[in-house]
Design a protein that fits this description.
By secondary structure, the protein is of the alpha/beta class. 45% of the residues lie in helices and 15% in strands. Strand 9, helix 12 (261-268) and strand 10 (277-280) form a beta-alpha-beta unit.
Length: 409
């Protein structure tokens, strides 16, 4: 089947898309990718695929997207390019990523004159998530970006799709409950589980030194540093641990949201914790196993909201594969996962957050046992080889429909 995959970003940095491409290529599908080129040199992340890159300045892209609900130039731009893309490569199914790409993809298919199915891949609960982004906050920004409109038109955008891919069963069930026009058979669940082959290839055998001169158990947070990710809750709990003279250190790795930078560096630079906190602005994903190797407990303190209840973040699986116990907030998908595999502790508030860390700090055997449980869970159950059949089976069904003349009706 000739599958067109559309990503309104830099393909090479989207591990989820690359995992799906790898699976579909192994099934002998012909893959054609339409994505953006931000003026860098790109090598194709997967061999044997056709990648069409559209050159667009990143700042212009962000500006067009910001105004999308006021003046839909960005939508028109993508509809035109998708229509051409479909026609040039004789695309038989269009697989697009994120809710906001549904409308331009639907229009692009219509412009092409071809009746092909639209597959909508939801990386998050976008209609809620967009209301939490800093670029939509404030009276003027909200007035122009109109983030509330995404919820208003969510059902229409979902109904354009022949198939909808989601991160978790919990998010699927929530959408089915909210929109009775959607059918269970329209959904495919494909979590952010890792590709074990990629992890094994990229893991480098280097001995990383601790960022601290004193030997102490090390807490580790990896990923975007932002209030919505619970980083300030983690820092508050860490401060309480220091106040109780508990011997522990904290390492944070990842870019800080622009709006949270001032607060983050003020908190981490305070006299009572600054010598006990290490911040690393960026680490290459290939280096992550080395950082996990020197860590003792990993943190996933996401604020509980509809966005973080749409699926399990990549970092959870990374922590588990690295054989480290996880302390996480009680967002449903990660709570269900961690409790099922007994690979960490869940908290509902700051008091339970602190208690969970203390429990693990005081029990080396429990840390090792939970770390081992997490690693074995990823190896045996939580990887792309275990979930690939859901994705490939969906395309087998679409192919059968296309052959029988039912697809796109």
């Amino acid at each position: 089947m000739k599958i067109g995959i559309v990503v309104d970003n830099d393909l090479n940095n989207d591990n989820r898309v690359i995992r799906e491409i790898t699976i579909l290529k192994e099934q002998k599908h012909e893959l054609f990718i339409l994505c953006l080129d931000f003026g860098r040199y790109y090598s194709d992340p997967v061999s044997g695929i056709v990648v069409k890159r559209i050159t667009l300045n990143r700042k212009i892209k962000d500006l067009l997207f910001f105004f999308q609900n006021l003046i839909p130039v960005y939508e028109w731009f993508w509809a035109l390019n998708i229509s051409r893309f479909i026609s040039i490569y004789n695309i038989e199914a269009l697989h697009v990523h994120d809710l906001y790409m549904s409308e331009p993809s639907h229009r692009g298919i219509s412009r092409s004159g071809r009746k092909i199915p639209l597959i909508l891949d939801l990386h998050e609960n976008y209609s809620y998530a967009v209301t939490t982004y800093n670029w939509t906050k404030g009276f003027l920004r909200s007035l122009v970006s109109r983030p509330h409109l995404w919820k208003d038109k969510e059902e229409k955008l979902l109904r354009y799709a022949r198939k909808i891919i989601v991160l978790s069963r919990e998010f699927r069930d929530e959408l089915l409950k909210s929109y009775t026009s959607l059918l269970p058979d329209n959904f495919c669940v494909f979590p952010n589980v890792p590709d074990l082959d990629q992890i094994i290839i990229t893991k480098e055998k280097t001995k990383l030194a601790s960022p601290f001169s004193e030997k102490a158990p090390l807490l580790f947070y990896f990923g975007t540093v932002a209030e919505r990710r619970g980083i300030f809750d983690a820092l508050e709990v860490f401060r309480k641990l220091q106040g109780k003279a508990i011997n522990v250190r904290l390492m944070i790795a990842g870019p800080v949201d622009k709006k949270d930078r001032k607060r983050f560096f003020r908190v981490t630079g305070s006299n009572d914790i600054k010598s006990k906190v290490s911040y690393i602005p960026w680490i290459n994903y290939r280096e992550l196993p080395d950082y996990l190797e020197i860590s003792d407990i990993c943190l996933a303190p996401f604020l509980k909201n509809p966005q973080h209840e749409s699926g399990v973040a990549n970092k959870i699986y990374d922590y588990m594969f690295g054989s480290r116990p996880v302390v996480a907030s009680d967002c449903r998908p990660q709570k269900n996962l961690i409790e099922k595999y007994k690979c960490g502790l869940i908290f509902r508030d700051l008091e339970e957050f602190e208690e969970a860390i203390i429990t693990l700090l005081m029990d080396d055997n429990l840390r090792r046992e939970m770390g081992k449980n997490g690693h074995m869970a990823v190896v045996s159950d939580l990887n792309t080889k275990k979930f690939r059949n859901d994705l490939t089976g969906m395309y087998d069904q679409l192919h059968t429909e296309a052959v029988s003349g039912l697809s796109g009706l």
